[in-house]
Design brief:
The chain is α+β, with helices and mostly antiparallel strands and about 130 residues long. The chain is about 20% helix and about 10% strand. It contains three helices and three strands; from the N terminus they run ααβββα. It has a three-stranded antiparallel beta sheet with strand order 1-2-3, covered by helices on one side. Strand 1 and strand 2 form a beta hairpin.
C-alpha cells in the first residue's frame, strides 16, 4: 500500500501516476537508448518525453536523444542515427556528488592531496618582519 501511494505522488523514483496514465493513453513508443530509457511522443509529435530506466537524472539522456526531445532533430536517433566520429568519447552521465566525480589535485576531497612547496606562511616574529 505504501509503495502504491509513494508511486502516485513522487517523481524521483519513477514516473508519476499522471505520466503513466498519459503514456498509456497518448504515448507512442519511439525508441530506446543503450541505458534502457524509453522515449515516447504523442501521435502528432507535439509532445516528447522519456521514461527513465533507473534514477531520474537528465544527464542520463544522450546528446542524440536530447536533441530529439527538444525538437532540434525531427527524426529520433532510432530512425536516423547521428554519425559517430573516432574522436568522440562515449556519453557519460553527470557524476557530481558520486564517488566517480572529478576531484582536482588540490581539493580537500582528494585523498592524495599534496602540500604546496612554494608557499611559506608569514611569521610576524621572524627577522625582517614589520616592527
Amino acid at each position: 500500500m505504501i509503495k502504491l501511494v509513494k508511486h502516485m505522488i513522487t517523481w524521483w523514483d519513477s514516473q508519476t501516476l499522471g505520466t503513466r496514465i498519459f503514456t498509456w493513453l497518448r504515448g507512442v513508443r519511439v525508441g530506446e537508448d543503450e541505458d534502457g530509457n524509453i522515449y515516447y511522443s504523442t501521435a502528432d509529435g507535439q509532445r516528447r518525453w522519456v521514461i527513465y530506466n533507473g534514477p531520474i537524472e537528465a544527464s542520463r539522456v544522450s546528446p542524440e536523444w536530447h536533441g530529439w526531445l527538444h525538437h532540434t532533430f525531427a527524426n529520433p536517433p532510432s530512425d536516423d542515427p547521428l554519425p559517430r566520429y573516432t574522436w568522440q568519447a562515449p556519453h557519460v552521465e553527470n557524476l557530481t556528488g558520486t564517488e566517480g566525480a572529478y576531484v582536482p589535485p588540490g581539493s580537500l576531497r582528494n585523498p592524495e592531496r599534496r602540500r604546496r612547496a612554494d608557499y611559506e606562511a608569514w611569521d610576524p616574529d621572524a627577522e625582517g618582519g614589520a616592527g
